[in-house]
Amino acid sequence: MPQSRSLSWLTVPTPLPSGPMRIAVTPLGVAAAGYGGRDGETPPCTDPAKITAVTERIGAYLAGRTRELGLPIDWSLSSGPHRTVLRTLWEQVPYGRTITYGELAARSGVFEDVTEPGLAARTVGQMMAANPVALLVPCHRVVAADGIGGFGGGRVGIDVKRWLLTLEGVLEPTLDWNGPL
């Protein structure tokens, strides 16, 4: 049985503009993470060790007490080129850094045969929108060549991206910043 079939869910409170995150765990690690996730995902996680580890590590990260989440990732909900691009991001773009969609496309090696201008960058944007493990694989660090770029969830999604980039020191805090200093 694939590990993705043994998902169990928990809700983690956050200071993010989207509210709490919904996290799915398996025996291998975190398989899904979403901003402002849907309540009622079943089955609920009942493993106290997993609940504590996920809640404490995400809380410490969002409070600015650590730069690493240190949670294992179950990659089973991504495959092929999508997984390659996500792993490239996860392995090569550290806290406080950003990369453009086009640079990530080139660095991943997935789009070597693509000749249409902008296609690889647009495809990476779509891959980031479909990132099953948001925050753990930091799609918020992928930006447009001419600005912040997009982020799933419309206006709230952009607010989450700005919040996370401010937390990481990429953007200067605004007067309404409600994160750690």
From TrEMBL:
Enzyme Commission number: 2.1.1.63
SUPFAM superfamilies: Methylated DNA-protein cysteine methyltransferase, C-terminal domain
Annotated ranges, domain Methylated-DNA-[protein]-cysteine S-methyltransferase DNA binding: 85-170
Signal sequence range: none
Transmembrane segments: none
Domain of life of the source: Bacteria
A Pfam family it matches: DNA_binding_1
Coiled coil spans: none
CDD domains: ATase
Keyword list, A-Z: DNA damage, DNA repair, Methyltransferase, Transferase
Keyword Glycosyltransferase in record: no
Database matches in NCBIfam families: ogt
Biological function: Involved in the cellular defense against the biological effects of O6-methylguanine (O6-MeG) and O4-methylthymine (O4-MeT) in DNA. Repairs the methylated nucleobase in DNA by stoichiometrically transferring the methyl group to a cysteine residue in the enzyme. This is a suicide reaction: the enzyme is irreversibly inactivated.
Protein family: Belongs to the MGMT family.
Family matches, as PANTHER family: METHYLATED-DNA--PROTEIN-CYSTEINE METHYLTRANSFERASE (PTHR46460)
Designated name of the protein: Methylated-DNA--protein-cysteine methyltransferase
Organism: Kitasatospora cathayae
